[in-house]
Amino acid sequence: MKRLALLLFVGFVFLSCEKKEDGLYEDYQVAKPLKMSLSEFKNGVDVIAPMPIEESGKIYAYKDYIFVNDKYKGVHVIDNSIPSSPKKIAFIKIAGNVDISVKDDYLFADSLMDLMVLDISDIDNITIVNRLENVLRDNIIWPAQADFIEYENINYETEILVGWEIVTERRLKTDFEERFNTIDFALAESANDASVGQGGSLARFKIVEDFLYAVDSHNINIFNISDLENPEDLEDVFAGFDIETIFSKGQYLFLGSMSGMYIYDISTPSTPTFISEFQHGTACDPVVVDDNYAYVTLRGGNACGATESGLYIIDISNISEPVLKETYSMDEPYGLGIKNEKLFVCDGASGLKVFDKSDITDLKTLDHFKDLVTFDVIPLEENLLMIGEGILYQYEYLDHKINLISKLELN
């Protein structure tokens, strides 16, 4: 009996201490650096057999092919000649890659600070034709959604940072409260052209005629690609802070940033000129545009800021003075797209929402695909592409809604 009492007492003390300790800890999002050696990075581009995707990134459509970014690792190539039965056919390994753009069978891709040029005219024999070194900047996006960032575990003399992995770990609450005292903030530093592919609203690359525009967090990086095999790196244009996305319409570029939308005139394509801006609270911010309006999704919360999540519709009929016209509440919107009078919004875990935008003051819901996680869309001429959590969806347009025609598991 004494032994049992002793065991019960010890167990009680242990549980009490554990419970007391639990009050000191909490689960936090921790960003761990993804690294490789400098030599591995320089030789980090290759074309291999199809493989499972690890983290779905952006999508890009060109001719009968779909390219799906595997964040920081490369691009999955999908044969979409039969939309009801798409097939993975290759994986292009590109260290640190998050964006691509294609013109006349030449694929341009970022590899951290380098710009890669690949010939995809023979999709079964993709070849590397050029590498422009140190022409892109600020290309590793600071993991704003993380509570802790383990940046100190990088040896820049022998290693290179190619991305971040976010994991959940228990950490002391006091460490969380004091984490900003030691951070080194210096570390945080066209669809109508058949020859050019089409990206989604989250793209940072955009080809307009003979120019490739690539935005980083502060600049528009400009390349003359009239000689597709030998892009000319032109003078960058400083464009603001926390720039995330780029969209083009006619002679204008629309840049989505965490604090607003910037509009640039590219009538002289080598030197984009600032026209105007629309400011909003801090939030993640992709943008798409039709003739009179810009449609912007703002995603608030820990990852992007304090702004409430929503859809903002901005009147750009006077391009020099954009004016907010309407706002609609959303849960956690990411990418969006437009096709004629249809507006598609990827609302994260709340699914894909389809609206009739004929009257922007009264958006009508046409469809709502629930129970799936959505990231970005590309409205093509014949069908709609959507990337979710490791899944590529395709829909056909109907008069007043859309209909699922295929679903490709990428894992």
TrEMBL record:
Domain of life: Bacteria
SUPFAM superfamilies per the UniProt record, alphabetical: YWTD domain
Protein name as annotated: LVIVD repeat-containing protein
Pfam family, any one: LVIVD
PROSITE patterns attached to this UniProt entry: PROKAR_LIPOPROTEIN (PS51257)
